[in-house]
């Protein structure tokens, strides 16, 4: 009997749909007839089957998008040192602000679409996506004003007139990218909520190849220089948007979730704005946090060596953070789907599995970084002095990587549950109430330099992570299921259901 039960439990691992597998996971976790170890092992395998096809493509999408921006800066850099500095300043100082804001606001549709899909309210997903596109497009208007007047803003921040002028030219070419973000992120979350991630990976990979060729053609052969490089990046983002939307139109598996354009998308916009605002603040505070580290480091006496070393470390951390960001997306989808489906045990179990898996990968990254600490910098520069400085900072980098293996996943769980506003308050207190001030005290008052600044900011991240762990593992998941049902009912009553 025991072997028959186990075979019955493992059968969905071989052939079952997503909905069936979700249901079987809840049944498996509730099945006390199986020995505890076998039940947990089978449930883990089942959860990994659901989780990895979400996380792996999501990680690749974020890495590819990051590489598109890097390719653009590389082509700009070959035009000269001024153009390289302008592209880096425009990307880090202006474009990253828009990216964080738009991606954060897009997390609202991630919560609603994920929970609605789990609850099988399929007709609402297309409405939520359209509503998010409208809200994000309107948000793009003030961002466009910021882009247009970026030169005086950069001058106000103390940049030289020559660099500010060149950076402004680069930023002007990124204005169309704002509206690509406004459309792309809702589409991306619409797809992720339905566990459809691989097509976005293929589209992004193909666009990266096209972007590289177009950048070479526009920047070098046609001679459009700095403005050409940023316009090409904007064009590539629009190619991704159009390709993903065409996929939604032609693929047969979206017949229930996409019913065409609807005027219902214009209703309930203010409620969506309020949910989006919490998401935007939550994510923006996280994205900007370590940018603050670089800015504060620039205030040290003779900061050039420290800035070179911290830039190398942040480049490595930024690349590896894409792994945590991919698990963030997967955690959000899994938790929101399970809550929407009314599966509290599956939601809780998914949280445990994704955190453990991401943590193990992060520890592995940290070990590799520590083993290679003496040679890591040579991928970026040939200087031995910088290499020694990077080596000294690698323990801080390793600790940051471990935290980045847990913190983004917990943020993904928060998005899946709809806790964005709560996490935004936690981020303000931990990051900017503790981390930044503590880093400044250690770096300047105690004369510990960049190590002190980074230590303080690690303290802020650690406190935030501990608080999120405490909240997550004290969560009453049965209550969260009820909250999700109430949220969907409230949103559902705001407009008539679309008949399929």
UniProtKB/TrEMBL annotation:
UniProt cross-references to CDD domains, sorted A to Z: MATE_eukaryotic
Listed GO CC annotations: membrane
TM spans (from-to): 48-65, 94-113, 133-157, 163-182, 202-223, 235-254, 275-297, 309-335, 347-370, 396-415, 422-446, 452-473
Major localization listed first in the record, in broad terms: membrane
Domain of life: Eukaryota
Localisation: Membrane
Membrane topology term: Multi-pass membrane protein
Keyword field: Membrane, Transmembrane, Transmembrane helix
Protein family according to the UniProt entry: Belongs to the multi antimicrobial extrusion (MATE) (TC 2.A.66.1) family.
NCBIfam families in UniProt: matE (TIGR00797)
Protein name from the UniProt record: Protein DETOXIFICATION
Species for this entry: Flemingia macrophylla
């Amino acid at each position: 009997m025991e072997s028959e039960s186990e075979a019955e439990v493992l059968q969905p691992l071989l052939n079952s749909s997503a909905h069936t597998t979700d249901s079987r996971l809840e049944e498996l976790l509730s099945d006390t007839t199986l020995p505890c170890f076998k039940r947990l092992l089978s449930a883990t395998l089942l959860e990994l089957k659901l989780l990895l096809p979400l996380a792996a493509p999501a990680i690749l999408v974020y890495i590819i998008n990051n590489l598109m921006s890097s390719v653009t800066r590389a082509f700009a850099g070959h035009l000269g040192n001024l153009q390289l500095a302008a592209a880096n300043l425009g990307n880090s100082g202006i474009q990253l602000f828009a990216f964080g804001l738009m991606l954060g606001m897009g997390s609202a549709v991630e919560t609603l679409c994920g929970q609605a899909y789990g609850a099988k309210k399929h007709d609402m997903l297309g409405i939520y996506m359209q509503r998010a596109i409208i809200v994000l497009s309107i948000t793009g208007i003030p961002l466009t004003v910021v882009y247009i007047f970026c030169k005086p803003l950069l001058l106000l921040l103390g940049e030289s007139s020559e660099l500010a002028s060149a950076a402004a030219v680069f930023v002007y070419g990124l204005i169309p990218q704002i509206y690509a973000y406004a459309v792309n992120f809702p589409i991306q979350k619409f797809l992720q909520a339905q566990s459809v991630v691989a097509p976005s990976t293929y589209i992004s990979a193909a666009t990266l190849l096209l972007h590289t060729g177009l950048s070479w053609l526009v920047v070098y052969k046609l001679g459009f220089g700095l403005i050409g490089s940023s316009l090409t990046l904007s064009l590539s983002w629009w190619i991704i948007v159009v390709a993903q939307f065409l996929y939604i139109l032609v693929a047969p598996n979206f017949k229930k979730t996409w019913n065409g354009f609807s005027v219902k998308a214009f209703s309930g916009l203010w409620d969506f704005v309020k949910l989006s605002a919490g998401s935007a603040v939550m994510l923006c505070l996280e994205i900007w946090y370590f940018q603050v580290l670089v800015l504060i480091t620039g205030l040290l006496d003779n900061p050039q060596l420290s800035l070179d070393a911290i830039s190398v470390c942040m480049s490595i951390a930024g690349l590896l953070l894409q792994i945590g960001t991919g698990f963030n997306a997967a955690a959000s989808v899994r938790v929101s789907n399970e809550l929407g489906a009314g599966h509290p045990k599956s939601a809780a179990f998914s949280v445990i599995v994704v955190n453990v898996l991401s943590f193990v990968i992060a520890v592995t990254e940290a070990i590799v970084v520590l083993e290679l600490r003496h040679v890591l910098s040579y991928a970026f520069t040939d200087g031995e002095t910088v290499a020694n400085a990077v080596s000294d900072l690698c323990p801080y980098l390793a600790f940051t990587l471990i935290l980045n293996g847990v913190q983004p996943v917990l943020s993904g769980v928060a998005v899946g549950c709809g806790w964005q506003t709560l996490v935004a308050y936690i981020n303000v207190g931990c990051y900017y109430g503790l981390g930044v001030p503590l880093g400044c005290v250690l770096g300047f008052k105690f004369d510990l330099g960049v190590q002190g600044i980074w230590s303080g900011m690690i303290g802020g991240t650690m406190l935030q992570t501990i608080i999120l762990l405490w909240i997550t593992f004290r969560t009453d998941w049965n209550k969260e299921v009820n909250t999700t049902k109430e949220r969907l009912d409230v949103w559902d009553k705001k407009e008539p259901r679309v008949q399929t």
